Hints:
The protein is mainly α. 76% of the residues lie in helices and 3% in strands. It has a two-stranded parallel ribbon with strand order 1-2. α6 runs antiparallel to α12, α11 (264-296) runs parallel beside α16 (393-420) and α11 (264-296) packs antiparallel against α17.
Amino acid sequence: xxMSWSRFHTRLVIALGVAWVLDGLExxxxxxxxxxxxxxxxxxxxxxxxxxxxxxxxxxxEVAGALFFGRLSDKWGRKNLFMxxxxxxxxxxxLTALTAGKGQxxxxxxxxxxxxxxxxxxxxxxxxxxxxxxxIPAKYRGRVDIAVNGTYWLGxxxxxxxxxxxxxxxxxPGNVGWRICFALGVVLGVVILLVRRNVPExxxxxxxxxxxxxxxxxxxxxxxxxxxxxxxDSLPExxxxxTIRQRTTIGLVRIxxxxxxxxxxxxxxxxxxxxxxxxxxxxxxxxxxxxxxxLFGVSSGHTGYYFAVxxxxxxxxxxxxxxxxxxxxxxxxxxxxxxxxxxxxxxxxLLTKNGSLTATxxxxxxxxxxxxxxxxxxxxxxxxxxxxxxxxxxxxxAVFYAVGTGVGGAVGPLVFSDLTKDGDPSKVALAFLVxxxxxxxxxxxxxxxxxxxxxxxxxxxxxxxxxxxxxxESGGGSASGSGGPRIAPAGAS
Length: 493
């Protein structure tokens, strides 16, 4: 928290933040391949079966992966898990591209491979958010988290543009192009895996788990690089300290009790933010190509152009608005982006019902809506990552992500697919209306419950459980200022 921004931090963000690029790539490809895979020349499945296998099963895998790997990230460490989860994604993506035939057996095979790929990406969310927040200085944490989560849409742009070429049957056969789309995601993942080898473990995690020598070595090296880059002889001293009782493991019951009973308002806040954005985004991402085709007659080979435009609006929002989370503050920005995006979506729903939009004007409307909504959605991950204690961080992200994705992500695409399948403007408008109301409701909750976390160290936002243990044993407390505290171990137990 005392460090200035440096090349050290930039490399960390690039190496870790690409998890969202991969997810954006996967989700966008899934939304665009439905019509191709359902053709007789490919797998010959119904559009509903493809939407379930490629989309819903993938999201269910993300839920399972987030919960399973989230717990392991708190137990085994951030670095171990962000290497393992990327490896799981690579296996699932590679096997998906090898789907080779038709029939019920191959449907089950496709389901299994999509579930595996989803597990890897779901685990990435928990491990990566935790690592980034624990390695980035407090004064930059808001903008970095918002921007990194927003890069999901960089992957979406790549997926949209890739689908324009790969899914064009005048260029590639229909049974080849969609496989290439998934295979290129694997190639990108391999490159990322190689880059991540030099990313350090979280010093905070190491210290709490009794490995203070390794933690000190990592921090000392980071400080050396920052001083060398900026020509500084030394860094300011920490303005406070806390004492921790080192523990190798913390029980799941203790973690669950902490999330639910010690921070009930923060729990309600996290659930509200994740449910709102997950339903909106997963429903629209999987359903928008179908809207363009059914409602406006856009050919399946051209839906990628519209996706690319929407994705660009989503990417620009977090990049431009992210710094305001560290200056104006969390509460104003989180509630504002959610409520404003919901209101704009209500207007879009009304225009859709009245038949006032074309494929182009609806895409423009969605660009404006998602400029704010993508920033709000990114803030959901920032919120749950920083408002719970260190020992519960990855699991907290996993739980909220799993609930939001399980309800909004898995149910949303199925409901939305049903509402948009026949191109009825009234049904499409109804789907937009539901998403808008959920976003507005989440924004209202944030207005009352959001935590003023800007510029504060993680330990001052939510005290580590191990610090509470140490204080109970010593019978005393410790100071907590606004800057980064020095965490002194009290011994291993």
